[in-house]
Amino acid sequence: MIGAEGTFAPFSYHDDNDNLVGYDVEVSEALAKELGVKIKFVEVKWDSLIAGLDSDKYDLVTNQVAITAERKNMIFQFHIHTLIQQLSLKKIIQKSLK
Fold first, then answer.
1. pLDDT tens across 15-60, in order?
2. Which helix (DSSP H) or strand (DSSP E) does residue 74 occupy?
3. How confident is the model over 82-92, as pLDDT tens digits?
4. β-bridge partners, 62
5. Are 77 and 94 in contact (CB under 8 A)?
6. pLDDT surpasses 90 at 61
7. What pLDDT sits at residue 97?
8. Which CATH number, 1.25.40.620, 3.40.190.10, 3.10.20.740, 3.20.20.140, labels domain 2-97?
9. What is the 3-state secondary structure (H, E, C) of 39-58?
10. pTM of structure
11. In Å, what is the CA distance from 20 to each residue of 81, 86, 98?
């Protein structure tokens, strides 16, 4: 499950048919295809995005989340483009990659 806001074009937003689309969605779908896994997006308000990740409502956030000192302690992040875009994974996943 992937947390996303769905209101920040061109990264994640709704098309004319109300489908969640955008750069973050396409990158997530491409990664899932490469890994051979199925994904489901959970749309939440921006203010709840990190809290939902921390409370296990989803496993991953893809939504223009900037690194801050507080977030860096909570989550593992890797960049998918420039310094402002990251995929944010739960700390437990970071530990499994060591």
1. 999 999 999 899 889 989 998 999 999 999 988 888 888 888 988 8
2. helix 69-74
3. 444 455 555 55
4. 87
5. no
6. no
7. 64
8. 3.40.190.10
9. CCEEECCHHHHHHHHHCCCC
10. 0.67
11. 20, 19, 33
Segment 65-77, tens digit of pLDDT: 766 777 666 655 5
For residues 81 and 87, the answer to whether their CB atoms sit within 8 Å is no
Tokens read off for 2: 């992937």
Q: Looking at the chain, how many residues does it have?
A: 98
Domain ranges of the chain: 2-97
Structure tokens at 13: 């937003």
Bond from prior residue into 10 cis (ω within 30 degrees of 0): yes
Supply 8's token pair.
């920040």
